[in-house]
Amino acid sequence: MDAQFARLLEFAERPNTVLQVAPFSxxxxxxxxxxxxxxxxxxxxxVSYAESAHRGHLERESASVLxxxxxxxxxxxxxxxxxxxxxxxxxxxxxxx
Length: 97
Known about the structure:
The protein is of the alpha+beta class. The protein folds into 2 domains: about 1-20 and about 80-95, no CATH class; about 30-80, no CATH class. About 45% of the residues lie in helices and about 15% in strands. The chain contains 3 helices and 3 strands. The chain has a 3-stranded antiparallel beta sheet with strand order 1-2-3, covered by helices on one side. β1 and β2 form a beta hairpin. The longest helix is centred in the C-terminal third of the chain and has 17 residues, at about 60-80.
């Protein structure tokens, strides 16, 4: 577990990344139950990709991608800031040493 926490802290130090932890207290407001990736293509169109244990799903239709993007932005707004996320991980890491 310590190595996983260390990896997250290293990730947060990169200049082109943002690490945010979504608290368990979000409960049912958590918009995703699977990993989601939203990409902006060179032509500025949006694409989303969701993956489960059994399959992946690529979505290119704006009507389907825009609600996913809105849910992602809501998740970002409710998640801890990067500084608070890093502090939380550091506190948890101390408990595992």
